[in-house]
Amino acid sequence: MNDLDFLRTPEGRALLDEVRDADPAQELAVATRLRRTHPAPLVSAALGQARLRQRAVAKFGAADAGRMFFTPNGVEQSTRASVATYRAERLHGLGVRSVADLCCGIGGDAIALARAGIRVLAVDRSPLTCEAARANADALGLADLIEVREADVTEVDTAPYDAVFVDPARRGGRGRIFDPEAYSPPLSWAVAAARTASRAAALKVAPGIPHEAVPADAEAEWISDGGDVKEAVLWFGAGAAPGAVRATLLPGPRTLPGTGLPDPEARTPGRYLYEPDGAVVRAHLVAEVAAQVGGGLLDATIAYVTADELLPTPYATAYEITDRMPFNVKKLKALLRERGVGTLTVKKRGSAVEPEELRKKIRPQGPNAATVFLTRVAGAPTMLIGHPAR
């Protein structure tokens, strides 16, 4: 029996409940105590699963993570539930009622699709991963909508399904894979599979995918959640606008479509600095944000927008700038000490200085807070000091 077989027995489930809130610092003592009454392999499996569930809370929420079964790779590579839910709801809104979920992993996307009322064929070639996906569908009461199949995704007939969703593996033995043709399966195969879908298709890709690698007949969408860029999705078929780009921010959702604006001009720094959301930057839609706030760029190569007025936009965070100076650590330290700044946020774009290194040199002290931007203005290394605009 493997770990998941152990953990799905009545004894295993009881043990999982017992170690649910185990403190990692006390794990050795907990393991020693439990091995007096339970087999050692089962205790190790339960404690390992408890650690994975604790890590998974950030992606799946405490309620679901506390019932699901994970593998180490499954926790690392799963889609955040909020992002999977958004994508599933978009597919449902397109009239999709059945999906072939290829490279399903532990079933995170299949769960979101099923909860949207969509019937799912979840396919993966890993026996352990498929077992976890089945266990999760059962644990969350979705087994009637999710069929898990252990198979090579390139050999699956997707014709009976309205849509195809592909999440190629983007990690290898040496870490992240940046070449889309080195994905498993390659992006070219996934695109070909998407084009055969009867209604719609969505391909999950890395947010750093080069724009030139996006097929001309796909719509590209970059998605962030809580300000963190999570993924890019290539959409095909119904509801997709070939060649279009968009940035979607969660929660919301708020979607900024590309309008084909040229890059904004660089200009003299104004009173306000706007930091576009990462999804906006990845989608190359900084010009759209600049147009919304009547601003320009601090530097032609930097994705910071500057403007004279405060015009709030959901697609960028606004800061009021109080000081501007050439990069100089001693002068910055003196200014912050004079202002009594003890809470210092350091942001950078276009600077080789690491924020933590600067903080160590500054050693801020005092009751006040400030934000320092390390960037370039007209090509010159510059420091801008300010605070979130109110």
- Unreliable stretches (pLDDT < 50, length at least 5) are none
Structural class: alpha/beta
Q: Care to count the β-strands?
A: 18
Strand order of the largest sheet: 3-2-1-4-7-9-8-10-11
- The rounded Rg comes to 24 Å
Strand content: 25-35%
Number of H/I helices: 13
Q: Kindly state the percentage of residues in helix.
A: 25-40%
Which word captures the global form? globular
Q: Mean pLDDT, as a whole number? A: 93
* Major beta sheet summary: 9 strands, mixed
Q: How far apart lie the N and C ends?
A: 59 Å
Written description of the protein model:
The protein has 390 residues and is an alpha/beta fold. The chain contains 13 helices and 18 strands. Strands 3-2-1-4-7-9-8-10-11 form a nine-stranded mixed sheet, sandwiched between helices. Strands 13-14-12-15-18-17-16 form a seven-stranded mixed sheet. Strands 5-6 form a two-stranded antiparallel sheet. Strand 13 and strand 14 (305-307) form a beta hairpin. Helix 2 (10-19) packs across helix 4 (40-65) and helix 6 crosses helix 7 (108-115). The longest helix is centred in the first third of the chain and has 26 residues, at 40-65.
Give a concise summary.
By secondary structure, the protein is α/β, with parallel strands linked by helices. The chain has helices spanning 3-7, 10-19, 27-34, 40-65, 72-77, 81-93, 108-115, 127-139, 187-195, 278-282, 286-293, 329-339, 355-362; strands at residues 98-102, 119-124, 146-150, 163-166, 171-172, 175-176, 200-205, 219-225, 228-237, 245-250, 254-257, 272-276, 296-297, 305-307, 316-326, 341-348, 368-377, 380-388.
